[in-house]
Amino acid sequence: MARILAIDYGKKRTGIAVTDELQIIASGLTTVDTKVLIQFLKEYTEKEKVALFVVGEPKQMDNTASESETLIQPFLAKLEKQFPDIPIVRVDERFTSKMAFQTMIDSGLKKQQRKNKALVDEISATLILQSYLYSK
């Protein structure tokens, strides 16, 4: 079986999470500079089978698209073009950053460690992936 890869797309950094090959457990993989995201995904998919991309969908409280959705749309077009055989699913990502920060507190990370925005992005991607897995 192939993995599911989740993407918490950001202007500067993008959090990445993946499932195990049985698609049961979501784990944070890394955070990459958004400028090299497509290249990272190419290299990753050459080493690992990926069945699906799950991309966070930022929404406002009234369910309308967030401003950052305008940044994500061009990325989605590139993703579809580069990986035409891998489907893309969008998952509501409201509150994932707050939940990620709370997870860091609950895990006992010290204040200095919680300032690591890359870790927040990676945990957010994991939460997006877990949300997708729960909905399946």
Structural overview:
The protein has 136 residues and is α/β, with parallel strands linked by helices. It has a single domain, classed as Nucleotidyltransferase, domain 5 (2-Layer Sandwich), CATH 3.30.420.140. The protein contains five helices and five strands; from the N terminus they run βββαβαβααα. The chain has a five-stranded mixed β-sheet with strand order 3-2-1-4-5, with helices on both faces. α2 links the parallel β4 (50-57) and β5. α3 (96-106) packs across α5. The chain is globular, with a radius of gyration of 14 Å. The two termini are 16 Å apart. The model has no long low-confidence stretch (mean pLDDT 86). It is found in: Cytoplasm. Belongs to the YqgF HJR family. This is Putative pre-16S rRNA nuclease.
| Discrete helix count | 5
Mean pLDDT: 86
Elements, N to C (H/E): EEEHEHEHHH
CATH topology group: Nucleotidyltransferase, domain 5
Assembly state (oligomeric)? single chain
Computed structural class:
alpha/beta
Q: Quick one: CATH superfamily?
A: YqgF/RNase H-like domain
Radius of gyration (CA) equals: 14 Å
Largest sheet: 5 strands, mixed
Tell me the name of the CATH class. Alpha Beta
CATH architecture: 2-Layer Sandwich
The domain tally reads 1
Low-confidence stretches: none
Q: How many beta-strand elements?
A: 5
Strand order across the biggest sheet?
3-2-1-4-5
What share of the residues lie within helices?
Answer: 40-55%
Subcellular location: Cytoplasm
Protein name: Putative pre-16S rRNA nuclease
GO molecular function: hydrolase activity, acting on ester bonds; nuclease activity
Organism: Hwangdonia lutea
